[in-house]
């Protein structure tokens, strides 16, 4: 593919072709859930991410001017077309074929060629394996304990509690899968991410989540930033940072299409748009009022944690229900409250311009950006 098309458009063609191919199998499985004994769409989802990410990084390295790139894009840019073997190794290597996690081509090459000094990862591997055992047990115990009943006689408070418990009981499944994928790569020596100030090695380059930050998130953005981290990196790199039309909406639509064709996916991600914008507006406007004393900060954190959990449980409910009918029935029973409230907040709260810079974003954990070779201390 890369030898036959215009490199100035290669990233767009690759993203479109891989997404169309993936969507075909999503539709096929949606129409006939039992058509295949093994669901291989997850592997295709990972392959879609890798191929499209490679194309965008190759475009950055060969077509765009160096001055037009952000620091992150400069570090990830692929400056020459690799051979077929490195390309296939990156895309279909067994370490990340079935469930990822996604990584950049440059990080993968650093690992393959052994261009980093690191100690034995056994301690980290054993810790994560113990965590996997705990998460698997939690999944087995909790996964069938809670569900969304859609009983019209339930009170609003009970429905929200039910939504929270249902969402919380589903999370260990993802925690387990992503942690296991991470530990498999760590055991092979992939995932080293430098050394902390007190000398401990970091093995979180490929980490796909931060459980503590998810469960204690005090903002919608904090929750999203720590959930499926590598997919968020991919969405930001191929869509959010480049979309000429409403980057947030474009990113959520791409995310929904990548996940599948169930109406619940689109309902969830479209609901997330006003919720995200409203949460951002509330944080910009109200947060400064609570930053004067430690008590006010604590009160703000508790309130925002509760609001975040309520908003997230409401937003992801269609993702769990999948169908359009059950999702509409649920939201109707709640009066579409968290669709209406964000829109009202966006109308009444002032819009303060954000001062987002690459320098500011560099304060985020480097595993959120995936540029291994910049942050290593060897």
Structural class: mainly alpha
**Number of separate helices:** 17
Number of strands: 0
Overall radius of gyration = 21 Å
Keywords: Acyltransferase, Endoplasmic reticulum, Membrane, Transferase, Transmembrane, Transmembrane helix
Subcellular location: Endoplasmic reticulum membrane
Region (Disordered): 356-378
Transmembrane segments: 12-31, 252-277, 298-324, 330-349
Q: Would you write up a description of this structure?
A:
With 378 residues, the chain is mainly alpha-helical. It folds into 3 domains: 106 residues; 84 residues; 161 residues, no CATH class. It is 63% helix and 0% strand. The chain contains 17 helices and no strands. Helix 7 crosses helix 13. The protein is globular. The chain starts with 9 loop residues before the first helix and ends with a helix. The C terminus is likely disordered. Pfam families: MBOAT. One of its GO terms (biological process) is lipid modification. One of its GO terms (molecular function) is acyltransferase activity.
Short key terms for the protein model shown above:
mainly alpha; 17 helices; globular
Task: Chart the SSEs and their pairings.
Layout: H1 10-31, H2 41-62, H3 71-76, H4 84-92, H5 105-112, H6 122-142, H7 156-187, H8 211-215, H9 220-225, H10 229-240, H11 247-259, H12 263-286, H13 294-321, H14 324-333, H15 337-348, H16 358-361, H17 372-375
Helix pairs in contact: 1-2, 2-10, 6-7, 7-13, 10-11, 11-12, 12-13, 12-15, 13-14
Provide a compact summary of the structure:
By secondary structure, the chain is mostly helical. The chain folds into three domains: 10-115; 117-200; 209-369, no CATH class.
